[in-house]
Each structure stands twice: as structure tokens, then as C-alpha cells.
Design goal:
The complex is a heterodimer of chains A (about 350) and B (about 325).
Chain A lengths: L1 H5 L3 H17 L5 E3 L2 E3 L1 H24 L7 H17 L7 H29 L3 H20 L4 E2 L3 H8 L1 E2 L2 E2 H18 L3 H10 L1 H6 L4 H26 L2 E2 L8 H11 L11 H20 L7 H16 L1 H8 L6 H8 L1
Antiparallel strand pairs in A: 1-2, 3-6, 4-5
Helix pairs in contact in A: 2-13, 3-8, 3-11, 3-12, 3-13, 4-5, 4-6, 4-11, 5-6, 5-11, 7-8, 7-11, 12-13, 13-14
Chain B lengths: L1 H20 L17 E6 L5 H17 L2 E6 L4 H14 L3 E4 L8 H9 L4 E4 L13 E4 L2 H15 L7 E7 L5 H14 L5 E8 L4 H14 L5 E4 L2 H13 L9 E6 L2 H8 L5 E4 L5 H12 L7 E3 L4 E3 H7 L6
Parallel strand pairs in B: 1-2, 1-3, 3-4, 4-5, 5-11, 6-7, 6-8, 8-9, 9-10
Antiparallel strand pairs in B: 10-12
Helix pairs in contact in B: 2-10, 5-6, 7-8, 9-11
Chain lengths: ~350, ~325
């Protein structure tokens, strides 16, 4: 029992369960089957959290190496803009082949932006927060240039499927996120890659001396983060069937960092938790939905969210827990005094 | 070597952010005045919707047509960007400053600075809540309360003579912004007399399509019978339509939709029968603004409130008007 309580993911999980329980009461259908697929609040949450899970997943890897990527939101905007622009030029927007090609191309471009970030950090040696700030600011401008400041509408069935479609009764967007998580878990926990990441985050110099290609690994994680951000941008724009270069991914880097921190990954690098990040991302999405479902007034939503996040952070602080819950437990320290 | 390189890149970053600060700003920012050409510093909210881009275009085109030197700055939806843009205009010594405030409050200090520098200020499209109205010359734009009222009036007429309860959900604009506050108030006032009308849920969608969709999804899940959706702009309404269709309902039939703005995408949906009624909020105030800027610069007296010309559209009217919509 105490080992469960001590697990750092216990409190985030507990808060998630509470929020979901609230939604069970506020929603007409929490989870049900309609038109041959799952439907309900829980499905909306899972589907809606897919972009954040993807972005936070990339962010986890970057943070594990001791870096940070502020440019993810701008990369989302760029990839959505590129995809919608190309699709709107298609003769037949419902042709699956070309749409898939465009999706692949948009992700490819996003990976290249990640390569740019990684090169600035690992090869040029710029602080990650500054290196990615360049693309964060400039990238949104690039996205606006691509769309000419307009919202580009597309009417492509296959494209909309990646956000609103269902496969085997489950939302496609969520399946994409699950596949990405599975891939990363496999790569980091079943191969030595995870260990290498943690060692680079712990000490790049020591890793290099131990024969680990620290630079190569650093460049790689930024490329992965860029690719996932691009994929998230596609889901975002497919969801509204249009490219909105101003609001796509706006401030998502902060939500992603919050998800990573809630998940228990330290911002200084080193140890990381994929499961924690996914939990954090779903928690943030659930919080957003709950605020609307319980009818918190628009003026108070940010305060409401802040209270939940503060409570969450306090619950994860060992010092705070010691102060509040410390007295309830038997004190080994007291026994030590007696022994003296 | 590395330090030099970092310094070089850092200055690059600064240059980039400076550029982004006046994103889309054309030309260099050398000090204005000197010649007789009027310099107008304009700070735009951002480009959050099709409406806004049409507004920007109208201002840029009419400035060129009127022979006014326009210093355009995009605040990207942030008040702090707008304040620093206005300070920039004051330093550059432009002849007239115009801006569309991101939010209503917190402008006294920077407006006082403009006043101290003897630069007249014109508010466009959104008002500020400053007590001291001498801080700006005039406010040109729509009457948002009136827009909300028009939306409410239509609804009252639509349900005339019926007494069954009408459940309304509302998608508000950016919290604290004048259009969100006023459209909410005007609408609430117009339907207040009908006791069977009830606003069951009201939440912000930040004037954005994606937020409109997400919030509407949750509305649909948490509210049993929604009869009417009132969205403070077309884009949120368009996002909500996606959510309504995904929930297996028919927008415009199962749920009646009223929006404000009348941009092209919105008008298309109206003509298709997915929206029931749109209250126009015209973004094409560029020519009127240039006119006012010239008068203010010449020291002429101008009214302290100028309204833009606007109308409303039903589905039938949308079909005739749609081919003429440029934005």
C-alpha cells in the first residue's frame, strides 16, 4: 500500500481519476457505442489529447538529454499549413495516395526543422532554450507566410480521418498517439537507447568519454521531437479541416513541458518517464474538458486550472508531503534518538 | 570562437524577434514626419480569424490608396506586444496612432504617454475602458452590444408564440475582450423578457475554430438538449458545426446556430443551411479610418464615436450575397 502511495505517479493518477469521475456525472454518455464506434466524453478526451501526447513525448526525450524544445508549437503550425496548402491544390482532395504523400512530406519537413534545432544545440553549441526560441518565433512567421495569413480550408475526407476518423471503433488520432508511444517505449526500454539518453542527460562529457556519440543522440532527439510535433500539427489541422497558422500549437510547448513535469521527468535531464508524460498529457486535456463540463465561468477557468496544477505540484513535492503527512507515520528518527 | 558564434547567433535571434514584433511591417522604421505625408502607426490584434485578416487588408490597401505612410504592427493577440508597439510608434514620432485593443483594460499609462507626446490616438473596432476619454480622439467600429441584440432579436422572433423551453449554449470570444463582453450582454438583454429562453452553458472558445470545436464537443456531452448555439464569431461556429456533425446531429436543423461576423467561410455555411443567421460585423473600416486620420492630423474636430455600416443575413440573403464576399 505505502509503495503505491509513494509512487510519484500516484497523485497525478488520483487527480485524473477524480476528474474523470466528475465527467461521469456531468456527461450524458461517458462511454458508449454509436454508429459502430466508441463515443462519449472519454473518447473525446482521448481523441483531443492525441496532439499533446505526441508533442509531450518528443519533449520528454529532449528534456531527458538536458535540453528543451520551445519550437514545437511553431512546427505544428508549419506542418499543418504545408499539408493544407498542398491538399487544397490537389485536383481530387479525396484521393488517398496523394494525401498520404503530403502527410509524409509535412512530417519530413518537420523532421528537418528538428534537425536544424539539433544542429544548433549539439554542433554549434547554443543553449537549447535559445536555439529553439529562434524557430519558435520565426517558425510561426514561416507558417503565416505559407498560408499568406489566411485560414486555408480543405475538404479532404482522408485527411480529416487522421483526426476525426475511427479504426476498429477507436479514434484514429488516439491510435496514432498510442503507436508513437509504443514505438518510443520499445526503442528506449528494449534497446540501450534509453540508457544512452539518460547518460547524455546526466553528463554529456562523461558520456562522450565513455564512447557514446552524445552529439548524434542529441541531434536525433530534436529530430524526433520535430517529427512528432509535425504529426501533432497535422492532427490539429485535420480536426478543423483547415490550417490556422496563428492558433495552431499556440503555447502548446508550455502544456507539453507541464505534462513532462507532472510525469516526473526532471527538467535538468537524466531519468525520464514515458508513462508519466502520457498520464500528464491526458490529465491536462481532461482538466480542460472538465472545466467546460462543470460550467466554470469563462473568467474563472484559468484560476481553476491553476489551483489543480498547484495542488498537483504540491502533492509531488517530497518536502510538502513530509510536512503534511509526516506526522501520521511512525517516526524512525525518534527511535534513532532513543538509541542514542 | 564558440563565444563569438553564440553572440552572433544571439544577435540573430534578437533581430528575428524584433522582426516578429512588427511582423508584416513593411519598410524600415526610420523616424517619420518631416515631409507632409501622414504617418499612421497601426497595431493590429493579430490574425486570429478570417475577419481579422480582411480588416488588416482593408487598412493596408486604403492607406496606400490615401497616400498615408502606414507602420503596421501585429500584436499576435498579446497586450504586452501591443503596448510595446505603441511605445515604438511614440518613439518614432508617427503623426497618428490607431490600434485595435486586444483587451479592454490596462491602457491608461501608454495612452497617457501618447497624449504627452501630442500624438492623437484612434481606437478601431474594439473599445477601452479608460475613464479619461480625452486619452483618445475617437473610436471607430461596430456596436457590439447592438450586434448581440440583433442576434437575440432574431431568436425571439424565431420562437415567437412558442412557450416550450429553449436551451441555448454560448461560445464566447476571448475572455475580457470588448466584443465578447458586449455581444454577451446585448444577447442576454434581448432575450431576457422570454422566460422560456435559458442560456444553459457559456464558455470561451477564444474566437478560434479549434477551441470552438473542443468546447462544443463538451457542451454536447454535458448538456442533454441543446436547441440553439450562439457563437460570438463565425470561426467558432464553424468549429462547433464539425463537433455537432460528429455527434450525429444536423447543424442548422437539430441545433439552430447564430453567429456574428459574416466572413466568407461563415456565409458559405449559412448559404448551405448549416448556420441559421449571421449578424454582420464589417471589417472594411480602412477607408473611414484613413479619412479620420487625415482630419485628426489637420486638427479638425471629429465625433468621438464613429459607427461602421453593417447589416444581418438570413440563409436566403446569404445565397445572393455570397458571390460578392471577398473575405
Amino acid at each position: 500500500m505505502t509503495s503505491i502511495l509513494k509512487n510519484r505517479l500516484f497523485w497525478p493518477a488520483a487527480i485524473l481519476v477524480v476528474l474523470l469521475a466528475v465527467n461521469v456525472f456531468t456527461s450524458n454518455q461517458f462511454i458508449t457505442i454509436r454508429d459502430g464506434h466508441l463515443f462519449g466524453t472519454l473518447i473525446d478526451i482521448l481523441r483531443g489529447s492525441a496532439p499533446l501526447i505526441l508533442v509531450a513525448l518528443g519533449m520528454t526525450l529532449v528534456i531527458a538529454t538536458g535540453g528543451i524544445d520551445l519550437s514545437v508549437g511553431s512546427v505544428m503550425a508549419i506542418s499543418g499549413a504545408v499539408a493544407c496548402l498542398l491538399i487544397s491544390d490537389l485536383g481530387d482532395q479525396n484521393a488517398v495516395g496523394p494525401v498520404l504523400l503530403i502527410i509524409a512530406a509535412s512530417i519530413g519537413i518537420s523532421v528537418l526543422f528538428g534537425l536544424w534545432n539539433g544542429a544548433l544545440v549539439a554542433i554549434v553549441g547554443i543553449q537549447p532554450i535559445i536555439a529553439t526560441l529562434i524557430l519558435m518565433v520565426a517558425g510561426r512567421g514561416v507558417a503565416q507566410l505559407i498560408t499568406d495569413g489566411q485560414i486555408i480550408n480543405v475538404q479532404s475526407g482522408p485527411y480529416a480521418t487522421i483526426a476525426s476518423g475511427f479504426l476498429l471503433a477507436v479514434p484514429v488520432a488516439f491510435l496514432i498517439a498510442v503507436a508513437a508511444v509504443a514505438l518510443i517505449v520499445l526503442l528506449t526500454r528494449r534497446t540501450a537507447l534509453g540508457l544512452l539518453l539518460e547518460s547524455v542527460g546526466g553528463s554529456p562529457t562523461a558520456s562522450r568519454l565513455a564512447g557514446i556519440g552524445a552529439k548524434r543522440i542529441t541531434v536525433m532527439v530534436y529530430m524526433v521531437a520535430g517529427g512528432f510535433a509535425g504529426l501533432a500539427g497535422l492532427i490539429y489541422s485535420a480536426n478543423i479541416k483547415s490550417a490556422d497558422s496563428i492558433s495552431a500549437g499556440n503555447l502548446i510547448e508550455l502544456d507539453a513541458i507541464l505534462a513532462v513535469v507532472i510525469g516526473g521527468t526532471a527538467l535538468i535531464g537524466g531519468r525520464f518517464s514515458i508513462a508519466g508524460t502520457v498520464l500528464g498529457a491526458i490529465l491536462i486535456q481532461t482538466l480542460g474538458v472538465t472545466v467546460v463540463a462543470v460550467g466554470v465561468p469563462a473568467q474563472a477557468t484559468l484560476l481553476f486550472k491553476a489551483i489543480v496544477v498547484v495542488a498537483l505540484c504540491l502533492s509531488q513535492s517530497p518536502a510538502f508531503r513530509e510536512k503534511v503527512f509526516g506526522r501520521l507515520k511512525p517516526r524512525p528518527a525518534l527511535r534513532a534518538e532513543v538509541a542514542q | 570562437m564558440r563565444r563569438n558564434l553564440s553572440a552572433a547567433v544571439l544577435s540573430g535571434v534578437l533581430a528575428v524577434s524584433a522582426l516578429a514584433g512588427c511582423g508584416g511591417g513593411d519598410g524600415d522604421s526610420g523616424t517619420a514626419s518631416g515631409d507632409d505625408k501622414i504617418t499612421l502607426g497601426f497595431s493590429q490584434v493579430g490574425a486570429e480569424s478570417g475577419w481579422r485578416t480582411a480588416n488588416t487588408k482593408s487598412i493596408q490597401e486604403s492607406a496606400a490608396a490615401a497616400g498615408i505612410d502606414l507602420k503596421f504592427s501585429d500584436a499576435q493577440g498579446k497586450q504586452e506586444n501591443q503596448i510595446s508597439a505603441i511605445r515604438g510608434f511614440i518613439t518614432q514620432g508617427v503623426d497618428v496612432i490607431a490600434f485595435s485593443p486586444v483587451v479592454t483594460s490596462g491602457w491608461d499609462a501608454v495612452l497617457q504617454e501618447a497624449k504627452d507626446a501630442d500624438i492623437p490616438v484612434i481606437l478601431t473596432d474594439r473599445a477601452v475602458d479608460s475613464q479619461d476619454t480625452s486619452l483618445y480622439k475617437t473610436f471607430i467600429g461596430s456596436d457590439f452590444v447592438e450586434e448581440g441584440k440583433k442576434a437575440g432579436d432574431w431568436l425571439v422572433k424565431e420562437y415567437e408564440g412558442k412557450s416550450e423551453p429553449v436551451n441555448i449554449v454560448e461560445l464566447q470570444g476571448t475572455t475580457g475582450s470588448a466584443p465578447a463582453n458586449d455581444r454577451q450582454k446585448g444577447f442576454a438583454d434581448a432575450i431576457a423578457a422570454n422566460t422560456n429562453f435559458k442560456i444553459v452553458k457559456s464558455q470561451t472558445g477564444d474566437f478560434k475554430r479549434a477551441d470552438g470545436k473542443t468546447v462544443m464537443e463538451t457542451f454536447l456531452q454535458s448538456t442533454p438538449d441543446i436547441d440553439v448555439l450562439y457563437a460570438h464569431n463565425d470561426d467558432m461556429g464553424l468549429g462547433a458545426i464539425e463537433a455537432i456533425e460528429a455527434a450525429g446531429k444536423k447543424p442548422g436543423t437539430d441545433i439552430k446556430i447564430i453567429t456574428v461576423d459574416a466572413v466568407k467561410d461563415g456565409m458559405t455555411a449559412l448559404a448551405d443551411g448549416k448556420i441559421n443567421y449571421i449578424v454582420e460585423c464589417s471589417p472594411l473600416l480602412g477607408p473611414q479610418l484613413m479619412d479620420l486620420a487625415k482630419k485628426v492630423d489637420a486638427g479638425e474636430e471629429i465625433p468621438n464615436r464613429v459607427l461602421t455600416e453593417e447589416t444581418t443575413f438570413t440563409q436566403e440573403q446569404a445565397k445572393t450575397e455570397l458571390p460578392n464576399r471577398k473575405y
